[in-house]
Design goal:
Largest sheet of chain A: 3 strands, mixed
CATH topology of the largest domain in chain A: Arc Repressor Mutant, subunit A
Number of strands of chain A: 5
CATH class of the largest domain in chain A: Mainly Alpha
Number of domains of chain A: 2
Helix content of chain A: 40-55%
Oligomer: homodimer
Shape of chain A: globular
Structural class of chain A: alpha+beta
Number of helices of chain A: 6
CATH architecture of the largest domain in chain A: Orthogonal Bundle
Order of helices and strands of chain A: HHHHEEEEHEH
Radius of gyration of chain A: 17 Å
Chain lengths: 142, 142
DNA sequence: TTGAAACCGCAACTAAGTTGCATTAATATG
DNA sequence: CATATTAATGCAACTTAGTTGCGGTTTCAA
């Protein structure tokens, strides 16, 4: 869905299109790197949009509810967000410089998932899978 | 390794065996549920050992360094810890009641890992994989 | 143009985790 | 057993991510 379509769809549902909301949708439609709330505020600032962190937390929550974003956890006590559009993938994160790269798994976890549901009686809604290590640069230059 | 062996091994390395340290090692050797720092403090209190949170943070860090514990991340902004002894496994967490159950994956991610290392030039040190959903109880009783 | 309500910002708060520094206690050695 | 060394501890103050209440502002349909 294009940025414009996303916006139109929200408008149809009765939500308002504010500068902040429009810009956020634009940022996520073009960006590939998962972004934290702090990073979003800084990105907005570069477009001369000042936004309070409370607003961004609320906006991100809204976009999650609308299935426009997905939440990602790198285990460093802050959430990151990226477009829900991109096909399901995982990440590898450099423990030193925090560089992030998308990866696509060969293994298909859906079989495991089915089996786990049967064995545990849980209904699985999602999973997290992230790899950690050192990137080429950080590995070779200590 | 038994609790006693672990303690002996630490003593050999020149570390001291305090009440807190001994009890923590005991807790992790018997418990199966990943525990947060707060939960550890409460568990110690039940054995009449009062411990400052700073101490527990430091102690947990120490035990991680000694490869006695591993850190687990459920994405709720607090770390949990469990014995490093148990064979590599993952968890499924109920989003409602926080119940945790161990799971063992059928898929072998080591092949993926190798491939990812080749493709990205990262050196992978670890990964996280957790499943989230609703347990039987929480699923049926809304 | 205007009013309802969606959205926003501020201030004050919570909770997890960290740091500096002074004190306490485990253990090796005599 | 006495005691010196230093690992371990506790306290207070701090940091950072995220949350809440509430009054003010802006969007947008009618």
């Amino acid at each position: 869905m294009s940025t414009q379509d996303t916006i139109e769809s929200l408008r149809q549902k009765g939500f308002r299109i504010t500068n902040i909301r429009r810009k956020l949708i634009e940022i996520f439609s073009t960006g590939k790197k998962p972004l934290s709330v702090q990073e979003l505020i800084e990105k907005l600032a570069k477009s001369d949009i000042t936004a309070n962190k409370t607003t961004i937390y609320r906006e991100v929550y809204f976009l999650l509810e609308q299935d426009i974003l997905v939440e990602i956890d790198f285990g460093d006590r802050k959430k990151r967000y990226e477009s829900a559009e991109s096909e399901h993938h995982h990440h590898i994160i450099c423990l030193k410089c925090s560089k992030v790269q998308d990866i696509h798994l060969e293994s298909d976890l859906s079989e495991d998932q089915k089996k786990i549901e049967q064995e545990t009686n849980f209904t699985i809604t999602n999973h997290t899978l992230e790899f950690f290590g050192l990137c080429n640069t950080c590995h070779t230059t200590p």
